[in-house]
Amino acid sequence: MFDWRDYGNGIVAFDAGYVRPILAAIHMVIENGRVAFIDTGSNDALPNALAALKKLGVNEAAVDYVILTHIHLDHAGGAGSLMAAFPNARLVVHPRGARHMAEPSRLVVGVTAVYGADYVDRVYGEILPIPAERIIEAPDGYVVSLAGRELLCLDTPGHARHHICIVDRRTSGIFTGDMFGLSYRELDVDGRQFIFPTTTPTQFEPDEMRRSISRLLSFAPEAVYLTHYGRVPDVRRRASDLLRHLDVLVAIALSEKDAGAERQQHIKQAMALYLFEQIRAHGCELPDAELLAVWETDLELNAQGLCVWLDSQKS
After folding, report:
1. Candidates 3.60.15.10, 3.40.50.1400, 3.40.50.2300, 3.30.70.60; correct CATH number of 4-235?
2. Cα–Cα distance for residue pair 201/254, rounded to 1 Å
3. Residues 63-105: pLDDT tens digits?
């Protein structure tokens, strides 16, 4: 069995099977028997994706679209496998990401530089190319029609320059990829959700992130749907938390900008102290070791991304 969340509005989230349970969700929009997948996890997601279709009582031919919020491999690594399994599907992706889905070699090189070759091979495996004729480039304002249900694509830089968010005009919910941060279900306390920014390499831009979050709020969404992980309501309050945390992370990075070889480690340590303090203030009582198991990779990647951003300020 895998984690399955049916929100009762034609939107379902299920566990992508990426690295650990309830780390990465794949969302499905279902309308009149037609299906769109939003984000794909890694190649390991295919069995769960097929099981999800079976659970809905449809087959692979019912999938019209696979939509990527961006091309980081925890969101897009399984796209080639899913597209090979779904004969009628078209891939929808930011124009900056389209060529990397058709020819993923440069994308793999970039990811390998961050994670290392052994990790990429173990976690992602072979990234399959997608025929260019099956790829739709989605600039700002592009509308995907899923059996008449409109999914509006927004260009939302800040986490990555190839990032889109998708507004479901039927529900006013927004699929936010990584733009609206991380909200892991292990940290829920009495129905209250904790949220934290993701500043992973290599294109984190805090000012753009603030603008993109503000733009999402302008749609007055009833909820946002995060790849990490699932539905987050009370959007304005969570946005306030997110921006407050973002300001602190930027301040931490700037305070360490001249720390030399120890800069990344100093940023990571300061961020971890702040994060754990905020989680405790939220009321979460998980032991430190369990919190670290949830957050260790994100802390490392956030620190790397903040360092890349600091270096970009020098040029």
Report:
1. 3.60.15.10
2. 16
3. 999 999 999 999 999 999 999 999 999 999 999 999 999 999 9
